[in-house]
Amino acid sequence: MIPRKVAVIGAGDIGVGWAALCASAGWPVAIFDLKPGTMERASIEVERRTRALVALDRAPESIVERGLTELVHAQFLSEAVSDADWIIEAIHEDVAAKQKLLVGIEQQAGDDALISDALISSSSSGLPPTEIFGRMRRLDRCLVTHPLNPPELIPLVEVVPTERTSAASMNRAVEYLRSLGRFPIVLKKSIPGYVVGRVSAAVWRECIDLVLRGVISVDELDRAVSLGPAIGWAAAGPHLTYHLAAGEGGIRSFTQHLLASFESWWQQLAHWAQLDPEQQRALTQSIERAYKGKVEFLREARDRRLSAILRALEQARAPSESESG
Amino acid sequence: MIPRKVAVIGAGDIGVGWAALCASAGWPVAIFDLKPGTMERASIEVERRTRALVALDRAPESIVERGLTELVHAQFLSEAVSDADWIIEAIHEDVAAKQKLLVGIEQQAGDDALISDALISSSSSGLPPTEIFGRMRRLDRCLVTHPLNPPELIPLVEVVPTERTSAASMNRAVEYLRSLGRFPIVLKKSIPGYVVGRVSAAVWRECIDLVLRGVISVDELDRAVSLGPAIGWAAAGPHLTYHLAAGEGGIRSFTQHLLASFESWWQQLAHWAQLDPEQQRALTQSIERAYKGKVEFLREARDRRLSAILRALEQARAPSESESG
User: Fold this and answer.
1) Looking at the predicted structure, is the pLDDT value of residue B276 above 60?
2) Residue-range domain boundaries for chain A
3) Beta strands in chain B (DSSP E)
4) So what's the architecture of A6-186 in CATH?
5) A55 touches chain B (CB under 8 A)
């Protein structure tokens, strides 16, 4: 199942990524942002990131070019959503701004019968769906589809329904995402930060703490996580990692031998909930110093590694694993 | 710099992994365990895991076979450490047992001048090095080299000195590890759990919590982490991920827009330090149910994915990145 047209509202990094992903599948996309400056950058960036997917071997050139031919940089919200049957909200993480925009989108539906059945999804990374869509009249076609950064490369998309999202809308979102080569997971219930935000926040807090305590530098920490636990988790998630880490006995044997270590660490992990201004300054400066003047180079290298990993995982996937691996 | 002979003391999963890794480099290895049952399994497992590295394209067959020819399943501690210039302690995570074993190893040095200059490293995943080696006379040649599971595949090794480890011993450990294709990182100071244990504990606690709260099932959680944040972190560590996630503004712009979200999540993350028996039972059962009856299949699939990711990262590494990426 593929949509007639996708409207992406919000042309920051996530919106541009959604647009690049949909265009790379040859789908007609309109992108719109309220800020003209953002739109200017977006017109260049969507094309660049869509074409980069060809260079990274993630999309065939002919389909990408078809998608780019149909790409519309809309001047008005009404132009963007007109005729779209999937509308993706991708503005900044501010619940009031999202609510206001979404009410505006729903009002278009009154004027334009064509979008009355459009699926409307928010890219929020952790706000309660019931709040995000709280001012809309119809919730049955609304849900969260949270991608990671960059959305055109990382497969996971968290799908989080409101209390009144219809099963048909859920299925439709999952099918759209699968058609885009994404891996949607549907949360059984909404929780602030969903799954990815919470796990990432847990990781980042400890990583910040280790740097601020002087245990390790920013770039050594990054390499340690990359070449250590992250490679492990990319090959097998955390629970499976430990189930496989203790020989025949599995998780039972693992907890017998190592739960005590984990409990002693849990006792001592960073548990602060805020960075004070001094810590924030120290962190920002350390990260900027570690990666100064090479952001573009590092981004390209990151994307090259990401696409290489994706290709490797696709190749390593045995047919029999599709259900169980 | 490569050692004349490596002695691995402890033939559980980590010891077997060290032995397989060293044998796959063609190095002479002796492995020893106090429990005869463990040694029996180890004799089969070291060969299997060393040869698996050929099948996984991680080591050339001729070198692996040379290493396996020289592999010794020692019957006594003295036989294992005799003539070794790198002794790797890899028994279970119990500080008193490690201390006792290490004193025994040091006593061999009195009888056998050949090992008096051996480097002695512990595979502890988080105990203070100064405690582990606390009962030894000479600390200058002692340090922690903590690998991940499986040690023959995951490149990262944490190197943690005692307060009296010599710079020469540190350099020697780093060189040995690099000769084995490992990526050693040296911690600036010791902290319980080191870097990997703490970051892993932070991840696992939240992952356990999400399953126990019914937000997501064990296998969906594992896939979500694998195909989402873990792929991202494998391509760029946590700090770099966020530095690259907000366009031109880098980490400064990221914190401006998203620190508030992180702070709200930090406030709410799991902060328990113990699993009560009921929770432990629920977790164990959920993990066993999710992966029942296919541990061997899943381990092979995991190792296939791991080696594919490693190869992908090696291929994606541009020459100019060796210093900065």
Assistant:
1) yes
2) 6-186, 197-292
3) 6-9, 29-32, 72-73, 86-89, 119-122, 142-147, 156-161, 183-186
4) 3-Layer(aba) Sandwich (3.40)
5) no
In angstroms, the Cα distances linking B43 to B38, B180, B299 are 9, 21, 19
The average pLDDT across A99-114 equals 83
Task: Verify whether the Cβ–Cβ distance B230 to A226 is below 8 Å.
Answer: no
Question: What percentage of chain A has pLDDT greater than the value 70?
Answer: 95
Q: What average pLDDT does this structure show over B254-280? A: 96
A160 phi, psi to nearest 5 deg: -130, 115
Q: Which of B212, B251, B253, B320 to mutate to test the interface with A (most CBs of A within 10 A)?
A: B251
A178 pLDDT exceeds 80? yes
**Strand residues in A118-242 grouped as ranges (E):** 119-122, 142-147, 156-161, 183-186
The pLDDT value given to residue A113: 63
Please name the residue that has the structure tokens 């895991």. Answer: B49
Q: Which of A58, A55, A144, A57 is nearest to A95 (CA)?
A: A144
Out of A183, A225, A246, name the one closest to residue B233 (CB): A225
Report which DSSP code applies to B116. G
A201 to B302: CB separation less than 8 angstroms, yes or no: no
Interface of B with A in 141-160 (CB under 8 A): 148-149, 154-156, 158
pLDDT digits (tens, 9 = 90+) for A270-324: 999 999 999 999 999 999 999 987 888 999 999 999 999 999 999 987 554 444 4
Q: Which CATH number, 3.40.120.10, 1.10.630.10, 1.10.1040.10, 1.10.443.10, labels domain A197-292?
A: 1.10.1040.10
B282–chain A Cβ distance below 8 A for any pair: no
**Yes or no, beta carbons of A274 and B252 under 8 Å apart:** no
Q: Any chain A CB within 8 A of the CB of B114? A: no
Residue from the list A193, A215, A237 with its beta carbon closest to the beta carbon of B223: A237
Which has the higher per-residue pLDDT, A142 or A37? Answer: A142
B232 Cβ under 8 Å from any chain A Cβ: yes
For residue A161, the one-letter residue type is: P
Confirm if B298 and A235 have CB atoms less than 8 A apart: no
- Name which of B305, B307, B310, B314 to mutate to probe chain A: the one with the most chain A Cβ atoms within 10 A of its Cβ: B305
A60: closest CA of chain B, how far (Å): 20
Place of tokens 């599995």: A250
Supply the pTM of this predicted model: 0.95
User: Helices A250-268 and B196-212, interaxial angle, to 10°?
Assistant: 110
User: Which residues does A137 contact at the CB level (< 8 Å), separation at least 6?
Assistant: A106
Distance CA B95, CA A223 (A): 29
List chain B residues with CB under 8 Å of A290: 239
Alpha helices in B226-294 (DSSP H): 231-235, 238-243, 250-268, 277-290
3-state secondary structure of A8: strand
